[in-house]
Amino acid sequence: MDEIFKMHADICKTLTNPKRLEIINALRDKRMSAGQLLKIIKISKANLSQHMGILIQKGVVVSAREGINVFYELSDNRITKACDLMRGVLVSRLEETKKLLSKARR
């Protein structure tokens, strides 16, 4: 059981980088080439390559070479569901904080 928690934590660590979360969001509905991702994410090619290497190594993203292009897609659609759940928790916390601030200002 301890090994499962270590593996779980390892995947969660992969998702702690904002740029990797942007990449996951970009790949939410379709596979994309590195060039397409570069236009959306606005990072250097070297930086994208580094992030993609981590996402692939951790099993979050899979890649396929087609000619001179490399295409990426999520390995499992549940990854975006997990990200959406955590974003929902964040939004709820922000809404609660907003309510508390409103009360404090009165």
Report what the structure shows.
With 106 residues, this protein is of the alpha+beta class. It has a domain at 2-75: Arc Repressor Mutant, subunit A (Orthogonal Bundle), CATH 1.10.10. Helices cover 67% and strands 13% of the residues. Strands 1-3-2 form a three-stranded antiparallel sheet. A hairpin with a 2-residue loop joins strand 2 (61-66) and strand 3 (69-74). It is globular and about 65 Å long.
Strand content: 5-15%
Largest sheet features: 3 strands, antiparallel
* Share in helix: 55-70%
Instruction: Indicate the mean pLDDT.
Output: 94
Q: Please identify the structural class as seen in this structure.
A: alpha+beta
Tell me the quaternary state. single chain
CATH fold topology of the domain at 2-75: Arc Repressor Mutant, subunit A
Helical segment count:
5
